[in-house]
Amino acid sequence: MNLIVVEDHAAVSQTAAEVVAASITENADLTVVAATGTTPMDLYGELANRRRRGELVTSGWRVFQLDEYVGIPADDRRSLYQWMKCAVLDPLAIPADRTVRLRGDAADLVAACDDYDLAIESSRGLDLAILGLGPNGHLGFNEPPSDPTSPTRVVTLSAESIRSNAAYWGDEEDVPRCALTAGMTVLLSARHIVLVVSGGHKRGILERVLRGPVTPEVPASHLQSCGGCTVIADRLAAGHASA
Ligand code: GLP
After folding, report:
1. CA dihedral of 16, 238, 134, 158, whole degrees rounded to 10
2. Residue 241: what pLDDT?
3. Three-state secondary structure along 213-243?
């Protein structure tokens, strides 16, 4: 794991865009997981700018959805698919046939998760995972405890995740209780992982991710042993931590 500490959120987004661009030069055909959440939004904006300027080619990208609420149709504006479509797929011109959904609205959720893992396997794994950090150390919706061999699966959301996602639903009561998440196995074996973290509210959990014991209780702590992982954090999140 490499750590890059930069001044502020804007610098996190710029630096992450540079790390993404550098990590993909060798591979135009790319399998990518792209998180929703607030933190990577400006990074996607920067990637879209680069694409418009002809500095980034995304025509070979195949984008996999990271997580999705159970029971929410893909065309619901509150679905994570719609969020990903607006923030990632449309700005980066990724067509539907190069997108792999996590089908939280499927009748058979176990089959939906198996199909997803098979699609990743037949693409020879992920080249790039762009991730954010949950307030309890989750990656996607791999809630604590999640061990590094967790497959893509149905999860029950933690109270902390329900609280932090309430902002997108109006009220805690409205937040779905279950979700599908890409498993720890597929995320941790991505060839490049870019974890973006900003804001003082992430300082405590980031410290545990970077320096705490590697434990399923802090799922992102498993990134410590990932050579291809770059954590990009601003000073508020990282405190005085350095690489
Ligand atoms: C959410 C999502 C994650 C996201 C994380 C951090 O609950 N399930 O995919 O990366 O929490 O979100 P944010 O960047 O808004 O802090």
Report:
1. 170
2. 55
3. CCCCCCHHHHHHHCCCEEEEEEHHHHCCCCC
Which pLDDT tens digit goes with each residue over 134-160? Answer: 999 999 999 999 999 999 999 999 999
Q: Which CATH number does the domain 2-242 belong to among 1.10.10.10, 3.30.2130.30, 3.60.21.10, 3.40.50.1360? A: 3.40.50.1360
Residue 235 in tokens: 């000073």
* Cα–Cα distance measured from residue 106 to residue 102, given in angstroms and rounded to the nearest whole number: 9
The active-site residue, picked from 143, 165, 222, 234, is 143
**What CA–CA distance (Å, rounded) separates 117 from 183?**
8
Spot the catalytic one: 67, 68, 105, 234: 67
Residues with CB under 6 A from ligand 1: 35-39, 66-67, 131-134, 140-141, 161, 164-165
Torsion on CA atoms 216, 219, 224, 226, rounded to nearest 10 = 110
Catalytic, 201? Answer no
User: Phi and psi of 127, rounded to 5°?
Assistant: -85, -40
What pTM value is reported for the model? 0.96
List, in sequence order, every residue forming a beta bridge with 154; answer none if it has no partner: 180
For this structure, is 2 an active site residue? no
33-78 pLDDT tens trace: 999 999 999 999 999 999 999 999 999 999 999 999 999 999 999 9
